[in-house]
Amino acid sequence: MDAKLREPLRDLAECSLPAALEAMGERWSFLILRASFNGLHHFEEFQSELGIARNILANRLARLVEHGILKRDAMPDDRRKIEYRLTDKGFALLPTMIALRQWGERWETGFPASPVLVDERDRRPIAQIEVRAWDGRVLTKGDLIWSLPEHVINADDPADAQARAAE
């Protein structure tokens, strides 16, 4: 990724990473998200399991709802009780959460986390999250470069691929 073309690091408005970090906030938001993936849905469950202060939890839940990562619904049997559920946008963070967990196991703790995340079908541990090319090849940092949008080949459009190959 050391090619001459670089991502414009000063122009934060065009970069999706700061926007993603703004949506997630910080450590507590990730831990709330992990708890959501593990089936927690209620304020009291989050508070009890995470040991987070009530005011911080309320703030983080509101931020995750505001960004569309969680949805907030009153329970039908008791309208005073609120349930927080992952949205599709929230579920889309699963690979990020797994990648961060795997990174932490390798570089921070040095040992596998418990419990182990496994495939429900065969109970085998999931594979490491990898960066893959459009055709499934595993890519390393030496395989990646930045490209302007007008120079990107649309793999789903054979005419675009042929036109670019002819250039």
Pick out its properties.
167 residues, mainly alpha, two-stranded antiparallel ribbon, 7 helices, 6% strand, globular
Mind explaining what this structure looks like?
- The protein is mainly alpha-helical.
- The protein is built from 7 helices and 2 strands.
- It has helices at residues 16-24, 27-37, 43-50, 54-66, 88-91, 94-109, 158-166; strands at residues 70-74, 82-86.
- The protein has a two-stranded antiparallel sheet.
- It starts with 15 loop residues before the first helix and ends with a helix.
- 9% of the residues are buried.
Distance between the termini: 23 Å
The overall pLDDT, averaged over residues, is 88
Spans of at least 5 consecutive residues whose pLDDT stays below 50 are none
Computed Rg: 20 Å
Beta percentage is 5-15%
Number of H- or I-type helical stretches: 7
The percentage helix is: 40-55%
Question: What global shape is seen?
Answer: globular
Order of helices and strands: HHHHEEHHH
Biggest sheet, spatial arrangement of strands = 1-2
- Total strands: 2
Structural class by helix and strand composition: mainly alpha
Q: What kind of sheet is the major sheet?
A: 2 strands, antiparallel
